[in-house]
Design a protein that fits this description.
The structure is a single chain. With 283 residues, the chain is mainly alpha-helical. The chain has one domain: ABC transporter involved in vitamin B12 uptake, BtuC (Orthogonal Bundle), CATH 1.10.3470. The chain contains eleven helices and no strands. It starts with 7 loop residues before the first helix and ends in an 18-residue tail after the last helix.
Length: 283
């Protein structure tokens, strides 16, 4: 791997992986504790319509994808707040329409020659330096917003009804959270692709949740685990000549199953005998 670091595209891939890992650790934690994994998946797949729109209109990739992802996030946030019992159906419709629209727009794009696999399964080794700056700006914005509203997100994540009683702007935070998920999805697409984006958003937080006792610690451990999985998967893909995005997810999945195995096999704490230390009465 040392000789590979002399190559600019490998260095760019590592930087992109680190940037994505930090944001995934923070936003993925909020996605998991708020139980909106399905919504995040809907945003990710609807964003494919933005990819098709960008190429059809001749816009930069990030412009079309970010616009459609934010629009989808806003619609999903509105639907889930007003009709929770129908939210899954609405998300499914937006998910399907976004994917279908993306495919049709790419079919209609004159002289279209974009590699679909790079957007479906990621192409971290093809991330240019210009995209790194965009990812850094988007990631910094997301982290600043989460830091500013951290206590409100904490209250909303664990008891939204109580948070409303304490005048926490839960509705605003719900829209804001899904908007940040949309920005994060746009970042992750270049690394692992639309198909695998949910795995990177959810696997590290799922693992971290078992070993931490606070939201802040869960975010930090999720970011560390995401970085470890990304760097390890990137190294293995380079060593074995495999697809980088899929390798990263398989490494994360291996980490998940190892964590599950550890939880099941570790010895349970010994229960204290309530009668220990007590003087028994004489017969």
């Amino acid at each position: 791997m040392a000789e590979a670091l002399q190559l600019e595209f490998v260095r760019n891939a590592l930087i992109a992986g680190v940037l994505v890992s930090i944001v995934c650790g923070v936003i993925g934690t909020l996605v998991v504790v708020n139980r909106i994994v399905f919504l995040a998946g809907g945003i990710a797949h609807a964003a494919y319509g933005g990819i098709g729109l960008a190429f059809f209109m001749g816009w930069p990739y990030a412009v079309g994808t970010t616009g459609v992802a934010l629009l989808s996030a806003g619609v999903m946030a509105s639907v889930t707040l007003k009709a929770r019992h129908r939210a899954d159906a609405a998300v499914g419709v937006i998910w399907a329409v976004g994917m279908a629209a993306g495919v049709i727009l790419l079919d209609l794009t004159p002289g279209y020659n974009v590699d679909l696999m790079s957007y479906l399964f990621g192409s971290i080794l093809a991330v240019p330096a210009a995209d790194l700056w965009q990812m850094a700006v988007a990631g910094s914005l997301v982290l600043l917003v989460v830091g500013w509203y951290y206590n409100d997100f904490l209250a909303m994540s664990y008891d939204d009804e109580f948070a409303r009683l304490r005048n926490v702007p839960v509705t605003f935070l719900h829209f804001l959270l899904l908007a940040m998920v949309a920005l994060t999805v746009v970042m992750i697409i270049r690394v692992v692709g639309l198909i695998l984006v949910i795995a990177l958003l959810t696997i590290p937080p799922f693992i971290a949740e078992r070993f931490t006792g606070s939201l802040r610690a869960m975010m930090a451990l999720s970011a560390l685990l995401s970085g470890l999985f990304t760097v390890t998967g990137l190294w293995l893909s380079y060593l074995l000549d495999l697809t980088s995005g899929a390798t990263i997810i398989l490494v994360a999945a291996a980490g998940f199953f190892l964590a599950e195995l550890w939880q099941r096999l570790k010895p349970l704490p010994a229960k204290k005998d309530p009668s220990a230390g007590k003087v028994r009465p004489a017969a």
